[in-house]
Amino acid sequence: MTEKKDTNGYLDMELLRFTTAGSVDDGKSTLIGRLLYDSKSIFQDQIEAIEIASKNKGNEETDLALLTDGLRAEREQGITIDVAYRYFATPKRKFIIADTPGHIQYTRNMVTGASTANLAIILIDARHGVIEQTLRHSYIASLLKIPHIVVCINKMDLVDYDESAYEKIKKQFMSFAPKLDVKDIEFIPISALKGDNVVEPSKQMTWYQGTTLLYLLENIYIKGDNNYVDARFPVQYVIRPQSDEFHDYRGYAGRIDGGIFKVGDKIKVFPSGLESKIKSIDTLNESLDMAFAPQSVSITIEDDIDISRGDMIVKTENLMRQSQDITAMISWFNERPLQVRGKYALRHTTNDVKCIIQEVKFKMDINSLERNYDDKEVKMNDIARIQLKTTKPLFFDGYKKNRYTGSFVLIDEVTNETVGAGMIIDKA
Amino acid sequence: MNNYHLNHLRELEAESIFIFREVAAQFDNPVILFSGGKDSIVMFHLARKAFYPAKVPIPLLHIDTGHNFKEAIEFRDNLVEKYGVKLYVGSVQKTIDEGKVQEETGYNASRNVLQTTTLLDAIEEHKFDAALGGGRRDEEKARAKERFFSHRDEFGQWDPKNQRPELWNIFNGKKRMGEHFRVFPLSNWTELDVWQYIYMEDIEIPSLYYTHRREVFERDGVLLAAAPFMQLKPTEKIETLDVRCRTIGDITNTGLTRSKADNLKDIIDEIAAERTTERGQRFDDKRSETAMEDRKKEGYF
After folding, report:
1. Which of A119, A164, B90, B99 could form a disulfide with B118 if both were Cys (CB 3.0 to 4.6 A apart)?
2. How far apart are alpha carbons B162 and A37 in whole angstroms?
3. A232-315 sits in which CATH class?
4. Would you say residue B64 lies in a domain?
């Protein structure tokens, strides 16, 4: 007989997206393996597959890291090249892990994984304490505005579960934390290998009064992570059924990037500046009285005004910034360095414009968190502050206020590649 | 503010609807790959949601190996008629008859690999610039690294080492002439999410997913359906059992599960208690450790 689960309870689950950044030897793969294994998310055939692969490589023990290494090139080289997404669930939450490599040459992958995460796990080897890589991971989490950071001090078994080793590292981390912009930092001493404080509380570290990692992942408060104050609706697509039943229907389809919209709300449309009221909020199942981020809906309005993809609908009481001059932090992804005076396609929400890069203000040394005003060549995996000018005004918020209306990507118009990701700094 | 909250299925739904609308906005001639299996049925349901109250503006494409469960084909045809959507069919048999591919021989002969040629031909013939597939990252390790918007060169090939970064909810579908995209709106869903969503939304699925009595035989620990084109080894015996499909694909590599589950709640309980992945029951993935990665590079689904 199979075990009966409460299906209705499952429908109340929340979604938590988190990122783990680390290198081969800091136990990241073991930690993920442990979370997947202890939450019974590894299936028999997956275990068999990695057992065979481990034997083929001549390993005596089953290598849990193989679970998280996907592509042939990665397995051959024993490294993770790309962002890999992993999934597991407990009765409380569904988790999406963006598993990213930690080497400096993969900064772009860490940035990508961090862009949608609610939480970042930063792993520190208890024997080595805070190292360059810790600073790098923490800075990226802070730059991308991941709301919660959990610092896992791993391999506690190798320092005899010593409380003072843990406290020392915690202090080290807190000494540079003021340079970061993170509101919520937690520390947990763990041993991913032995399982201490990952899913089960440690019997070796009775001095630790906090929760296990899984408990924290299941219970950390994330309802405050979305912006419910500033109502933002980028128009994605215009729905015109042209059927008898919906003859004059004109719905503006999109995903709410922030705030709450209600039927009857006064709205303003950018760039036209015209005002109207919300007439209905429609979905296939039902028409809604209100909708909030991150729902995908179709909105109709009272007046017949021209609205198309790329336009932004906001509430009249809470407007956005508008400008052609943008200051931003940029993470560079491409082998071809950023070209000052170069022109790029820029996509911000659903809006496409062109831009010219005017100036590199400084480059960030992400190993020391110092600004570099001398070397301004922005190469792959560099992070820099830049000034750019767009052909048409952008309607935006600062990235601090809203990750979706405050971000953009740059696209090379010749190769069509996504070459950089920007986070807008609101100077006002 | 505590009430402004979506459960995980509604959040996944909102993400998938966003992807469908991005495809409709960014591409001229997209198509939904439709097999009649649960993932493609959920895909079509999400497409209806994305464009309501308009009809789904994207046609369907079925790559037909000729080795179908008749229930799946009936289901496909009913759905097409009910929702007034256009269906294209790419025939693997035709690809074989034209001599473009060689039919495999032997006991484990499958047309699975041959589908790639038919698919790429259909994409070229109808000039589709985006093909929406129901692939999920939890299915297989090569899929775990694929993007929502997955770029294909003019030969239909995937370059896993040179994928475009995807940040926030910005998806770059820019391409050159002759290139196309594969788009995976269900990337972040798991098998259990799909079933829970079918339950939550009361979505109709083919009867094959529920328990039924069928002639089957066992090969390498997997139950396969008896069919005229399935060649039995001397040691294999046909027996009649109560089974259901966990996935629906080509008959030659769709494993069946012994089950009495005749409703969604029981199916969900079964899935939640399963100890193997759904891909573990598919013959196509047992061929080699990098079977999926290799097929994907060539242009497979």
Report:
1. B90
2. 31
3. mainly beta
4. yes
pLDDT in tens, chain A (428 residues): 333 344 455 677 899 999 987 666 677 888 888 888 777 777 666 777 777 777 777 776 666 666 666 555 555 555 556 788 889 888 889 999 998 877 767 788 889 999 999 999 999 999 999 988 888 889 999 999 999 999 999 999 999 999 999 999 999 999 988 888 888 899 999 998 888 999 999 999 999 999 999 999 999 998 888 888 899 999 999 999 988 888 889 999 999 999 999 999 999 999 999 999 999 999 998 999 999 999 999 999 999 999 999 999 999 988 999 999 999 999 999 999 999 999 999 999 999 999 999 999 999 998 888 999 999 999 999 999 999 999 999 999 999 999 999 999 999 999 999 999 999 998 76
CB B30 within 8 A of CB B185: no
In a domain, B198, yes or no: no
Comparing alpha-carbon positions, the chain A residue that sits nearest to B290 is A72
* B92, B154: one domain: yes
Q: Are residues B169 and B271 in the same domain?
A: no
Residues B20, B163: one domain?
yes
Whether B154 and B35 map to the same domain: the answer is yes
- Its ipTM equals 0.91
Same domain, B275 and B293: no
CATH topology of domain A321-424: Elongation Factor Tu (Ef-tu); domain 3 (2.40.30)
B14 and A237 in contact by Cβ < 8 A?
no
B53 at interface of A, judged by CB pairs closer than 8 A: yes
In a domain, B2, yes or no: no
Q: Residue B105 belongs to a domain with what CATH number?
A: 3.40.50.620
Nearest to A112 among B10, B167, B187 (CB): B167
Buried b (16+ CB within 10 A) or exposed e, A243-262: eeebeebebbbbbbbbbbbe
pLDDT digits (tens, 9 = 90+) for B52-81: 999 999 999 999 888 888 889 999 999 999
Domain count, chain B: 2
pLDDT tens digits along A162-187: 999 999 999 999 998 888 888 889 99
Q: Which residue of A has its CA nearest to B146?
A: A84
Residue-range domain boundaries for chain A: 11-219, 232-315, 321-424
User: Are B209 and B245 within 8 A, CB to CB?
Assistant: yes
Listed in sequence order, the DSSP H helices in A258-303 are none
How many CB contacts within 8 angstroms connect chain A with chain B? 201
| Type and span of the H or E element at A392 | strand A383-396
**Per residue in B262-289, pLDDT tens?**
999 999 888 877 766 665 555 555 555 5
Residue at token pair 């597991």: A88
Give Cβ neighbours of residue A62 (< 8 Å, ≥ 6 apart): A47, A50, A51, A54
Across the interface, of B7, B52, B275, the residue whose CB is closest to A11 is B7
Both B267 and B146 in one domain: the answer is no
**Would you state the structure tokens that stand for residue A286, as one six-digit string?**
């039902």
Residues of chain A with pLDDT > 90, as a percent, come to 64
Place of tokens 């997947």: A36
Return d(Cα A149, Cα A48) in angstroms, integer: 34
Query: CA of A169, closest CA in chain B: separation in Å?
Result: 32
A247 in contact with B, Cβ within 8 Å: no
Which residues constitute the domain of residue B251?
Answer: 204-285
CATH number for the domain formed by residue range(s) A11-219: 3.40.50.300
Same domain, B177 and B251: no
For chain B, the straight-line distance linking the first and the last C-alpha, in angstroms and rounded, comes to: 42
